[in-house]
DNA sequence: CTAGGGTTAG
């Protein structure tokens, strides 16, 4: 029996009595109408007491019509539905991110249905705790699992190690790991992951080297662990190592990690190599992998390829990540107009922007000097998308107004925003003060911040930059001296870029690397060239915008 | 019927 069910099969009154055939039929239903028809036949024939059939129907509706699934479950003629059906329902609630409902169902399992949870129940709910990073809940479940005798079952064991590790309680996770008699790849990987998330990559690496068997998930956990703490070279080294030694094909998730490392390093050649590798081995290009490719190309300075990956993406897969990555890439390459156009295209294609998208598109507006457009987009956040602007968005607004020379308006935003301005908002305002020669305003702001103990290194550096722009060297020295005396430090900026396959790293103020003279000369040349082009007339872009 | 890994931010 293969293929879609025929009308005859669906209507067949006697067929339902045989549970196995019912299961096969359920498996072949593709529409809600078909499934409901089978469901009513099962109800009439009494086969609905088969929990496997019920479970399959539940799972089908949980994915397509959740409220119908809930209804179906509520009206099931219990006690025919065994623990299995409850587990299925709990799992589908967890899948739908309705964790609270899943836990409440767990509670009524004993009270209403007089059913005891089993190893499956615990495994699903421990997973839910891990998603919520809720260690209290995990402890409660742990106790109950012990009480009911499910503690030492493999999935429960691994679920416990995983949840404690994710919640950062590595002592508990490791203790369970040590006591565990099963210790499979999953137990090891859960622990490695926990240490990575805490930033303890050395411990994670030791475990990784020590574990008896590694699969691609274990490799990925370690690769991503390195990326998370910024050890991108180590991440790529491990990624290459995996190809060379393990004989495993990396999964899309692992490739995302490696591409991430390339993005952070600016390692275009390595990124290209990975892209080619993906093509060659026909690794499936899923949504996330495509977004990671777009991001990698954009961050490595190759917007054309970023665009190419985007356009080749099936339309239905172009999600908010793909759009936002590209919008950000375009904005960062001076293609502000294209970034805004893409944002509009996103809207017209019905892809809903999120808070990150707004940061990217607003910054595109501010670099283009498109004040009105930026203000309109900012307004649409709340009005159209019901996204409450965060400090970061107010920061973008300050930048938008400040760059355009509307200092008073920018200052007003800083003063009236509903939360404490973050360093970006303050930095944007101070930067605007520098560009537009508003020395007094800048000075007063920093003084006010220092008074309220809200000053940090970056703010003082910006103030000294303001003085420097105005050639007030005495004040520059004073600010710097004040910073020294008060022990204020700014974290030095750093960046990296790949040239001919080798990655070079730079730290502000460090002149020890090779060809520093050449770089400084080139920069001076670029600066001179830009200045020779003359200033862009104020308001020029705004007119182009409305015209 | 089950578990561990992944994407966008000035």
TrEMBL record:
One of its GO terms (molecular function) is RNA binding. Pfam families: E_motif, PPR, PPR_2. One of its GO terms (biological process) is RNA modification. The keyword Repeat applies. PPR repeats lie at residues 184-218, 319-353, 354-384. Keywords: Repeat. PANTHER family: (WILD MALAYSIAN BANANA) HYPOTHETICAL PROTEIN, PENTATRICOPEPTIDE REPEAT-CONTAINING PROTEIN. This is Pentatricopeptide repeat-containing protein. It comes from Trapa natans (Water chestnut).
């Amino acid at each position: 029996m293969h293929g879609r069910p025929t009308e005859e099969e669906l209507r067949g009154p006697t067929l339902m009595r045989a549970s196995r055939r019912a299961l096969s039929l359920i498996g072949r239903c593709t529409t809600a109408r078909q499934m409901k028809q089978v469901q009513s036949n099962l109800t009439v024939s009494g086969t609905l007491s088969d929990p496997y059939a019920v479970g399959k129907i539940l799972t089908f509706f949980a994915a397509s019509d959740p409220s119908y699934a809930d209804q179906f479950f509520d009206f099931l003629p219990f006690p025919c539905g065994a623990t299995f059906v409850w587990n299925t329902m709990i799992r589908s609630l967890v899948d739908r991110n309705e964790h609270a409902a899943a836990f409440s169902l767990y509670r009524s399992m004993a009270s209403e249905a007089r059913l005891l949870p089993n190893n499956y129940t615990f495994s699903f709910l421990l997973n839910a705790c891990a998603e919520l990073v809720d260690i209290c809940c995990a402890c409660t479940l742990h106790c109950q699992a012990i009480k009911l005798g499910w503690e030492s079952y493999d999935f429960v064991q691994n679920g416990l190690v995983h949840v404690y590790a994710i919640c950062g309680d590595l002592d508990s996770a490791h203790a369970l790991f040590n006591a565990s008699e099963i210790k499979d790849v999953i137990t090891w990987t859960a622990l490695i992951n926990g240490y990575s998330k805490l930033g303890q990559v050395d411990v994670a690496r030791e475990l990784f080297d020590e574990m008896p068997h590694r699969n691609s998930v274990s490799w990925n956990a370690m690769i991503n662990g390195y990326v998370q703490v910024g050890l991108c070279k180590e991440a790529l080294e491990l990624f290459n190592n995996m190809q060379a030694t393990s004989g495993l094909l990396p999964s899309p998730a692992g490739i995302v990690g490696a591409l991430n490392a390339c993005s952070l390093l600016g390692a275009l050649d390595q990124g290209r190599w990975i892209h080619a590798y993906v093509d060659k081995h026909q690794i499936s290009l899923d949504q996330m992998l495509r977004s990671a490719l777009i991001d990698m190309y954009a961050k490595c300075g190759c917007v054309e390829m970023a665009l190419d990956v985007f356009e080749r993406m099936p339309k239905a897969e172009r999600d908010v990540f793909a759009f936002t990555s590209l919008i950000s890439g375009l904005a960062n390459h001076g293609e502000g107009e294209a970034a805004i156009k893409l944002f509009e295209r996103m809207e017209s294609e019905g892809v809903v922007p999120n808070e990150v998208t707004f940061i990217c598109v607003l910054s595109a507006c501010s670099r283009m000097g498109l004040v009105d457009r930026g203000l309109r987009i900012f307004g649409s956040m709340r009005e159209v998308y019901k996204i409450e602007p965060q400090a970061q968005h107010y920061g973008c607004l300050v930048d938008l107004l400040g760059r355009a020379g509307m200092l008073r308006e920018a200052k007003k935003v800083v003063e009236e925003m509903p939360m404490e301005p973050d360093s970006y908002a303050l930095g944007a305002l101070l930067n605007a003060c520098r560009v537009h020669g508003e020395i007094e305003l800048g000075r007063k702001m920093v003084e006010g911040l220092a008074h309220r103990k809200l000053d940090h290194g970056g703010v003082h550096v910006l103030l000294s930059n303001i003085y420097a722009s105005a050639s007030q060297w005495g004040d520059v020295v004073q600010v710097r001296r004040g910073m020294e005396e008060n022990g204020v430090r700014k974290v030095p900026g750093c960046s990296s870029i790949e040239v001919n396959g080798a990655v070079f790293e730079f730290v502000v103020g460090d002149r020890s690397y090779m060809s520093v003279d050449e770089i400084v000369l080139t920069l001076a040349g670029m600066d001179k060239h830009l200045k020779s082009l003359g200033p862009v007339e104020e308001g020029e872009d705004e007119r182009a915008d409305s015209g």
